[in-house]
Amino acid sequence: MRRHVAGDTDAFGEIFARHRDRMWGVALSVCSDPDLAADAVQDGFVNAFRRAASYRGDAQLTTWLHRIVVNACLDRLRAARAHASTDELEEQGGVALPSLPDRTAAVDDRLLVAEALAALPESQRLVLVLVDMHGVPVAEAAAMLGVAPGTVKSRGSRGRAAIADHLRQGTRSPRRSSDDEGHPDRREERR
User: Fold this and answer.
1) How many CB atoms lie within 10 A of CB 114?
2) What is the DSSP letter of 120?
3) Residues 123-145: pLDDT tens digits?
4) At what angle do helices 105-119 and 149-169 cross, to 10 degrees?
5) How far apart are CA 14 and CA 65, in angstroms?
6) For residue 16, what are the contacts with CB-CB under 8 A and spacing of at least 6?
7) CB-side exposure of 186: number of CA atoms within 13 Å?
8) Number of Cα atoms under 13 Å in the Cβ half of residue 143
C-alpha cells in the first residue's frame, strides 16, 4: 500500500491480485447475488484505490479491505432495495432455490442453511459471513462493521440460534428480529 501511495503504478495491481478472491467470497456471501457481488467488489477496490492514503496501517490490509468491500455490498443492497419491488428484491437478494430440488440430504441441508442465512437480518448475516464462514476474528469483524466486539458476539449468537431454529423446523423461515428487539428471552423479560 505504501508503494502505491508513493506512486508505484504496479503496487495496487499486486494488492488486487492477492485479495480479490477473498473479497469476492465475502461479497458473494453478503449479497447472495453474483452480479451485485461483482459490482460491490469493483466498487470496493475502486474506493480502496482512491482512499489508499487514508490507510494508516493500524489494522491489517485485509481487515481494511474487508470493511470497504462490506460497505460497498451494503450500499449495493440498499440501492437494490430502494429500486426493487418485493418480487424483484427476492430475485436479487434472495437465495435462488431450484424448482426441482435435489433430494439428497446434504443438498437439502445446504439449501436450508442458505435460506436461513438469507432470511436473517442484515446485521446478523454479516457477522456470520465474516466470522463463521470466512474465519475473521471477532475483533477484526467488529472493526470492519464499526461496532463493539460484544455486539459482534451477540449478533452471531442470535443469528446461529435463528438458523438452528430454522433447521429444526425444516422449511419454515427463521424469525426475523432486529438487533434493537434483542434476544427473544429478553423481550419477554421487558413485558
Assistant:
1) 16
2) S
3) 998 898 888 888 888 988 888 88
4) 130
5) 14
6) 45
7) 9
8) 13
Give residue 83's Cα distance to chain centre.
21
What's the number of CA atoms in the CB half-sphere (13 Å) around residue 57?
4
Residue type, 101: P
Place of cell 508513493: 6
Nearest 5 degrees, angle CA 111-CA 75-CA 65? 85
Instruction: State the cell numbers at 191.
Output: 413485558
Q: What is the largest CA-CA distance in the chain?
A: 61
- 163 residue type, one letter: I
User: Exposed, middle or buried by CB within 10 Å (0-12, 13-18, 19+), for 50?
Assistant: exposed
What's the whole-model pTM score? 0.54
